[in-house]
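note to self — DONT lose this again. spent like an hour looking for the file last time. sequence + predicted structure for the chain T wanted, 227 res
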Amino acid sequence: MVASLLVSLLMLGGKITAYVITGSTAILSDALESVIHLLATGFAAFSLWYAVQPADSDHPYGHGKVAYFSSGFEGALIMVAAGAIIYTAIRDLIVGPELTQIGVGAWITGGLAAVNLVLGIALVRAGKKHNSLVLTSNGHHVLTDMWTSVGVVVALLLVRWTGAVWLDPVVAIAVAVNILWTSISLMRRSISGLMEAADPGDTDAIKGILDAAVDGGMIVGYHELRH
């Protein structure tokens, strides 16, 4: 998680630099998403620490549920970022963007995307290995940030090759829609966990084991299965 925080700071600094150089709305939107990611990573780090605290009189079942709050918080922040991106892009479509040194901006953004790809995959794998929703959510957020950067690079290259500056805010809107979908997925997972929704696959597996036990005479029967 420390590595994720450090990389988030690197991403933010690099994207702000690229925006200052190019004046690209898409890069500015990408930088805004990185601000949200930095805040979310900080909250995720706190959640990881809090989740492993021992049970106490106020929390007899431990503090593991904080992972779902972290996932929901991250999803909400991504949704805010998506709204801000769409607003900025529509404004630039109306006013008209002024872009400079597009090639330099594309190289910087592409390099940052490669770093995020490596980090995101590592976090998702670590989350699955340790069954940590916090790490998995943070990893998906990093990968979302990576795809945002890829979209920005595509926009910059298209503008450079075609001279159609309106493509910059249009691609920014497309990127915003993509990360909005991610935010909805994270918030849905958070709500399901907090409401203790049963996983259909787990339910079927448990019922299969119990049915086999009934058929084998190991138990008489079962009812009102909860897990």
